[in-house]
Amino acid sequence: MTMNRTKLTEHYRYVRGQSLALVAPLSAEDCCVQSMPDASPTKWHLGHTTWFFETFILEALEERFQPFDAAFRVLFNSYYKRIGEQHPRAQRGALTRPGLDHVLAYRANVDKRMLALLDSEVVADLDRLVELGLNHEQQHQELLITDIKHLLSLNPLHPAYAAKPAATNELTILPSWQDCAGGLVEIGYTGDGFCFDNETPRHSVFLRPYKLATALVTNAEFAAFIEAGGYTQAAYWLAEGWDWQRAQARSHPMYWQQGQSGWQEFRLNGMNDLDPTLPAVHLSYFEADAYARWAQARLPTEAEWEHAVATHAAQFAQLADEAWQWTSSSYAPYPGFRAQGGALGEYNGKFMVNQYVLRGGSAATPTGHTRLSYRNFFPAGACWQFSGIRLAQDC
Amino acid sequence: MTMNRTKLTEHYRYVRGQSLALVAPLSAEDCCVQSMPDASPTKWHLGHTTWFFETFILEALEERFQPFDAAFRVLFNSYYKRIGEQHPRAQRGALTRPGLDHVLAYRANVDKRMLALLDSEVVADLDRLVELGLNHEQQHQELLITDIKHLLSLNPLHPAYAAKPAATNELTILPSWQDCAGGLVEIGYTGDGFCFDNETPRHSVFLRPYKLATALVTNAEFAAFIEAGGYTQAAYWLAEGWDWQRAQARSHPMYWQQGQSGWQEFRLNGMNDLDPTLPAVHLSYFEADAYARWAQARLPTEAEWEHAVATHAAQFAQLADEAWQWTSSSYAPYPGFRAQGGALGEYNGKFMVNQYVLRGGSAATPTGHTRLSYRNFFPAGACWQFSGIRLAQDC
Amino acid sequence: MTMNRTKLTEHYRYVRGQSLALVAPLSAEDCCVQSMPDASPTKWHLGHTTWFFETFILEALEERFQPFDAAFRVLFNSYYKRIGEQHPRAQRGALTRPGLDHVLAYRANVDKRMLALLDSEVVADLDRLVELGLNHEQQHQELLITDIKHLLSLNPLHPAYAAKPAATNELTILPSWQDCAGGLVEIGYTGDGFCFDNETPRHSVFLRPYKLATALVTNAEFAAFIEAGGYTQAAYWLAEGWDWQRAQARSHPMYWQQGQSGWQEFRLNGMNDLDPTLPAVHLSYFEADAYARWAQARLPTEAEWEHAVATHAAQFAQLADEAWQWTSSSYAPYPGFRAQGGALGEYNGKFMVNQYVLRGGSAATPTGHTRLSYRNFFPAGACWQFSGIRLAQDC
Amino acid sequence: MTMNRTKLTEHYRYVRGQSLALVAPLSAEDCCVQSMPDASPTKWHLGHTTWFFETFILEALEERFQPFDAAFRVLFNSYYKRIGEQHPRAQRGALTRPGLDHVLAYRANVDKRMLALLDSEVVADLDRLVELGLNHEQQHQELLITDIKHLLSLNPLHPAYAAKPAATNELTILPSWQDCAGGLVEIGYTGDGFCFDNETPRHSVFLRPYKLATALVTNAEFAAFIEAGGYTQAAYWLAEGWDWQRAQARSHPMYWQQGQSGWQEFRLNGMNDLDPTLPAVHLSYFEADAYARWAQARLPTEAEWEHAVATHAAQFAQLADEAWQWTSSSYAPYPGFRAQGGALGEYNGKFMVNQYVLRGGSAATPTGHTRLSYRNFFPAGACWQFSGIRLAQDC
Q1: Does residue C160 form part of some domain?
Q2: What's the domain range around C107?
Q3: B264 and B369 share one domain
Q4: Per-residue pLDDT of chain B (395 residues; tens, 9 = 90+)
Q5: Residue C133 and residue C379: Cα distance in Å, rounded?
Q6: Is residue C169 part of a domain?
Q7: Is the Cβ pair D332, A328 closer than 8 Å?
Q8: Nearest-CA distance from C87 to chain D in Å?
Q9: Contacting partners of chain C (3+ CB pairs under 8 A)
Q10: What's the rounded Cα separation, in Å, for the pair A137 and A71?
């Protein structure tokens, strides 16, 4: 066990409370609407993360288990086919009922029962499952932010989710390259803390010598790519990436627009003049790959990323606080991978096709949620996450 | 002028209040979501009907006009291209802001200004425009009900919009045919009250002798059609209708489902066992036409419908209180039709293609809104309206 | 009977031979490919028209009937559900087998058997069915030309179907209006010759006084509409028409393109400079309606067209030799219409929804095929037919 | 240089002749039609492979180069954007002109010029480019076969491309596992013969101990998977694979159908009873992966495949003569990969996303075309290739 029970209970309160804190600036209407099939309503995130505790813990371990509402078993099941039916993903926004108040009552009810359980005698598996549930909730906290950002971006009034933050990043980070020797190295989770099954087993990978950028590509750098014809020259693009941007008539990142006096960017605090010093975010894999080719570099593999950071952590900026970093690695099982048993085996394994791994973490990631071996993954065309670029090069 | 100013002001208060009454059973979430591109959120209906008064009356006639919110000019413009840009129809559900409260404040503000205007000296055109605005609002009151019904129907919890009404229609209406002699008859609005431009000019039409059913087709009758293989035999269907129902795997009306003990129907009060005596509703033109062919009858033309009702009104049941009645008439301009001038000319005329006329009125139509010459119209595949069947036959 | 048997036999030979003459300029490859779901391969037209004789005549009347090839019953059935299954329409181009040679052998075989039958004793219905089959074949001859034109238009080499014709139409027709008094008039087929069921019964229609243009709208006139912003101003368009042209980014008729020195038009003889004196063709209903509104006129109803031509035939030019003429009439059954019995009842009746009637005839229509009461029909967005505009106006 | 000039010339004649031999059983119609956007018409394959020689060799090296037909530069360009425009891929079937005869004349003309060039003084690069062109042509020979098979499969007459072959494979291959020790191994092309750029550079990979099946999964084995509910249990499938088969209502491999007495399979010789001893082919990556999971095994990585075969070649059956073998490796650049320069750099590199590597070769692969390091690649849903399954397991 990685935390004792008291700490775990405290952490449970903290993480569950964070979800509510994220909802504070939103109206019930904001929480209900689904902006696209890929995104979920805030209310659904609140319900689903609660469902996770109710279904995988209370149902298994609570005496005289009674569901809060039998219909929620289907409504808030995301994709666990072994649990049963799911309300169709693209129809999550049609659920004006249960209302936000009712979902908040559901949360309160489950929290009360969970805290009672945590207060009881030790039950096998409980701590492990609670930790999983909290990590799961943190993943949804990040999605909640990126999903609400997408919803607000569709509104021509450009409403703000959050007030303008105090200025940060005022120091421009000077980009440079960190040399890495490569060789036969190990990646994957090691230790006795929590990790997801997809980070295991730790295994050997052979790497050639390479260099990894110490900073992320900035808005100014990405604007230079656009200026240089980046979106109009096929030679920079993967064939599928070229078709992707042509089909959508893309000529810049998702949340950018041309204003009177230059680029503007929709951010969580509304529309802003583009800050040239910030990392470029909301880039698809296709855009990241094209940029890298234009910059005479490439994306790192996930092994290169993990090994470099493990070896030279102090020398990299913006590791997990600004933007997830696309790698060129297709999301695949590690050698010897075994999904966990039961319905929870569906958590990660069944998505291991046609997605690419991102490493690090973003401004929307809850503090302390990620780690060196953490594997995020999205399809190559996804760009509503805080996804950016850390370049690599052969030595 | 068809009402004096005092009466008009009173009517203004009444109609505007009715919209609020319709919203009373709904949450802000219910009012925000768009269930399909054809339907609009309740909140949008509330805003758009208010925009209509602000744009077509206050902007023209108010001294020192200031818009309540300049952004609303685009957000709540439905399709008036001469007014300017429109927020895309299919994106109306993305507008979580302005919130319901803000839209209600918009209504209150415009009402105050409208009442002040109505209280002022007579201004040319004001009464005519107010009447149009109120008729417009009543049309949206009906859409508001059918749109919210559609939204709630998508929810697997089958929430009710309204409590179960006191039983009505307990007397089964005995169907019979009313003979009509035909000849050279006149249809179209006559009188000095309000009507829409599409009901004019009154004109002559030559009709052969025909019969019109005195009652609407019932659920029991439509169920017999299904039982007899109505949805599986192409011979009953227009070719496009056949393709329409095959593509969607339709085997019954939109809101019906098979329960343990027979057909059930989603209604405004939730899911019910099908009432065999009620008129069949939510039928597309294709279904109405197929039913008529199976029943060895046909749909009436709109001229047949109007002339029969004008001549024998007392002899028809369910004229305007249960379901709109599909006619076989394509929605087209009457001979000599002239759309009204300016942006309001877009109200009706530009939709005169690929739609079919419905006559009568429905349970969702505000009392007093329709008249003998009223022309409702929808595409042949539309079935989220309260649309049913009154059969006709040649003599 | 409208022709005696000898004449009918001679006519059979002539019409069937015409289909072969139309194919002469084409390769087997040209005859095989389907350019879009709406169009059919030439080979399929040749097979289907032959299937019509084999299925509706030989199968019914031939002693010891044996199908030429049992598979053809499905392959060449267009839409007669009472006959049985159909090869899917959109997949007609996948039928590289049977090859063109085999289909020509099919034609020769059926012709031999048909001629033997025509040479035999009189059989009830034979003459009527043969006439129908020949009229059917002539309809497909026109489709064959418009379909092959569409196919060749997709080829960047702009191949010609036919050599440049000797110059015609060198005399510009002076447009003018023919006044028509209207009143209670009759339309629909009268006489004892052949007609389609949809032209009956003859019936009374009441018309207000109107004017009908004596000539078709020319390329020069349509170019002036474009020049005046016709495709960029929503006010001229039906709402659905506007969406139709926006979705396809249309800014001119289907086969026009901008060349170095002005408009060019793809015609059956390849790419040509646009001839300003020729009638504008390949217009959709939407384009025709928008042009008419711009020209402060309107499209005629089919009753207006038929009555005017019946009364003043000598005074109209380009009635049936240049382009079909869109009317504002939705394709619907005439009052008292009865489809013919059996599978042939599917010929016309089941298409009477969401289509518009065209009158006259075109340069691609076989000589002698049409008549005053002839009703052609296509969806409002169709423009691969030779479809043009004859304007009308209220008096 | 890997062959001397005489041998190369002889090989040129042989490979180019093979393309013509493959076309022998086909009509001009068969050669013209495009069955789906993924597949190309035979005629286009014949033209494009010729265009490759004309564009990349004759244009560069021929004195006084004149294109055979200037329009072919666009018509037969597949995807080389640096060469210029391409005729749209999905419209290749619209090209009834140039006819097959004209394309064959194009082939003869280019062959004559190529042979003259090969007969001339040594020119730098010529041999290398000719080898590439011939390997390119062989790739298209395989596509020609799989594309024509797809086209014929759409024809309800089930036409045969080839006569029934003499019985082969009459000996059932006994499946077993070959143990492989793994460790730090090398993969990628080594030697001085021809290879594609994507097979380089040779590089080190670390492998854990594993087992590779000595034979391919048979039709009988795959039928057992179906029988066991393989297509109806989500647990066997990747999430995207499940959606893929549900969306298409798949319940068996692409060319299988249920006959009166069991499974039948469409093959190049027409419809056959399924041969249980033959390898299962035309499987998508999704089906291969699901089968492997059901069989408590997995797909090998491409490194595992290559290393095992390099080390134990004699012990594997059906390596390159029956079906390509899906690996779990996403198609990606090898460490240190450099695409070749110029337009030919588009040959492989730009497709390295969202595709999976297949190894080996198939019954449709020209003899001698593949090698140990050969990387074929297709999207996970592709199944019109001869693609099958060689299982792997952890030790």
Answers
A1: no
A2: 3-153
A3: yes
A4: 445 899 999 999 999 999 999 999 999 999 999 999 999 999 999 999 999 999 999 999 999 999 999 999 999 999 999 999 999 999 999 999 999 999 999 999 999 999 999 998 767 789 999 999 999 999 999 999 999 999 999 999 999 998 765 555 555 677 799 999 999 999 999 999 999 999 999 999 999 999 999 999 999 999 999 999 999 999 999 999 999 999 999 999 999 999 999 999 999 999 999 999 999 999 999 999 999 999 999 999 999 999 999 999 999 999 999 999 999 999 999 999 999 888 999 999 999 999 999 999 999 999 999 999 999 999 999 999 999 999 999 99
A5: 24
A6: no
A7: yes
A8: 8
A9: B, D
A10: 21
User: Is 60 exceeded by the pLDDT of residue C247?
Assistant: yes
ipTM summary value: 0.96
In this structure, are B88 and B220 located in the same domain? no
Distance CA D184, CA D207 (A): 6
Chain D residues near residue A380 by CB distance under 8 angstroms: 353-354
Smallest Cα distance from B265 to chain C, Å: 29
Q: Supply the CATH number for residue C35's domain.
A: 1.20.120
- Torsional class of A368: left (φ above 0), alpha (ψ -120 to 50), beta (otherwise): left
- Minimal CA–CA distance to C226: which of C253, C254, C249? C253
Minimal-distance CA residue of chain D relative to A304? D335
C14 contact B CB<8A: no
| CATH number of the domain that residue D346 is part of | 3.90.1580.10
Q: How many domains does one find in chain D?
A: 2
CA within 13 Å, CB half, D192 = 3
Whether D281 is covered by a domain: the verdict is yes
D32 contacts in C (CB within 8 Å)?
A: 29, 32-33, 96
Q: Does C238 touch chain B (CB under 8 A)?
A: yes
Same domain membership, residue C207 and residue C343: yes
Full-model pTM:
0.96
- Do both D202 and D274 map to the same domain? yes
Both A102 and A144 in a single domain? yes
Q: Which residues of B touch C289 (CB under 8 A)?
A: 353
D143 shares its domain with D235: no
| CB-based contact D205 A206, cutoff 8 Å | yes
B147 touches A at CB < 8 Å: no
Same domain for A380 and A345:
yes
DSSP A135-197: HHHHHHHHHHHHHHHHHHHTSTT---SSPPPPP---SPPPP-EEEE--EEEEES--SSS---G
Report d(CA A345, CA A349) in Å as an integer. Answer: 7
Residue corresponding to tokens 């049963």: A84
Contacts of C365 (CB under 8 A, 6+ apart): C138, C142, C320, C321
Q: Report yes or no: D151 at the C interface, CB cutoff 8 Å.
A: yes
| pLDDT per residue as tens digits for the range A272-304 | 999 999 999 999 999 999 999 999 999 999 999
Q: Looking at the domain assignment, is residue B348 inside a domain? A: yes
Q: B88 touching A, CB under 8 A?
A: no
